Amino acid sequence: MRNQVVIITGASSGIGRACAMEYAKQGASVVLSARNQDKLEELSTAVKELGAKVLIVPCDVTIDQDRRKLIDATIEEFGRIDVLLNNAGISQRSLAKDTLLEVERQLMEINYFGVIALTKLALKHMIAAKSGHIGVISSIVGKFGFPLRTGYSATKHALHGYFESLRAELHDDNIKVIIICPGRVKTNISINALTEDGSSHSKMDDGTEAGISAESCARQIVKAIDKGKRETYIGGKEILMIYIRRFLPGVFHKMILNIKPT
Ligand SMILES: NC(=O)c1ccc[n+]([C@@H]2O[C@H](COP(=O)([O-])OP(=O)(O)OC[C@H]3O[C@@H](n4cnc5c(N)ncnc54)[C@H](OP(=O)(O)O)[C@@H]3O)[C@@H](O)[C@H]2O)c1
Predict the structure, then answer these.
(1) Would you say the CB of residue 189 lies under 6 angstroms from ligand 1?
(2) N or C: fewer beta carbons within 10 Å in the chain?
(3) What's the pLDDT tens digit per position in 91-117?
């Protein structure tokens, strides 16, 4: 990891924050990005204490100017991008029948269009360098549908189609793509999730509360990227749902009817 330059979006909280700390521990230089600059400054202090180089670039992934600033500032400071970890994202807690289309568009803007737009900007530099690694945080609901997550699940499914295709296109440029699917991770994801009218859910779900720690998730993410995996599933027993959906779809569709999601 020593001397690797790693951009992490959504670094102000949860999985992104923990990945920044993990990369810093392993000697990488980290570029911290999110909208909340105060939280990034706080994290920057912790990262510097580990002896890592750090750059803060506040960025809303839905804003083109911000995305350009993130990539340009990284190149100006470090001269290259070894890893772009597309982690910023927002979830949903609402029934499709009640959810405003604007809310579904907002989820797509953050979780899908923001990710692919930023990736395109980074790609220019990676292709010129003939090296690079793109990490995308999807979810287990990027592998199957789940009630109260229609729009969110759709954004994560879209990432799989895009990044699997992109992986094949980039093979000859020596650029790797990994899609990371966490299950339940104890972060603010449910608190920040959007409800039917776009307001925040503002509650910690029981499932999220019972999830693995962000630190454990981050260790597994960094390891999977380092190993050059194409896809990885991280979490507890909920990961089994991916395999049940794949190999026993009839069983999966019965099981999902008995789940009372929160
Ligand atoms: N926790 C889980 O159980 C779980 C499971 C599967 C997948 N995931 C995925 O993991 C990723 C990280 O989520 P988390 O669990 O760590 O949740 P979190 O604690 O709510 O963190 C989300 C991060 O995304 C950033 N963000 C949100 N909107 C943004 C925007 N428009 N522009 C830039 N940054 C934005 C937030 O920073 P600011 O508010 O400062 O911008 C924050 O740093 C997400 O993609 C999520 O879908 C989480």
Answers:
(1) yes
(2) C
(3) 999 999 999 999 999 999 999 999 999
Asked if residue 21 is part of any domain, the answer here is yes
* Residue 90 and residue 66 in contact, taking contact as beta carbons nearer than 8 Å: no
Please write the tens of the pLDDT for every residue from 127-158: 999 999 999 999 999 999 999 999 999 999 99
Taking the whole predicted model, whether its pTM rises above 0.90 is answered as yes
**Based on the number of CB atoms within 10 Å of its own CB, is 228 exposed (0-12), middle (13-18) or buried (19 or more)?**
exposed
Domain with 223 in it: what CATH number?
3.40.50.720
Nearest CA to ligand 1 atom 23: 10
Q: Whose CA is nearest to atom 1 of ligand 1?
A: 185
Among 7, 9, 15, residue to substitute to test ligand 1 (most atoms within 8 Å of Cβ)? 15
Both tokens of 78, joined, read 């470090």
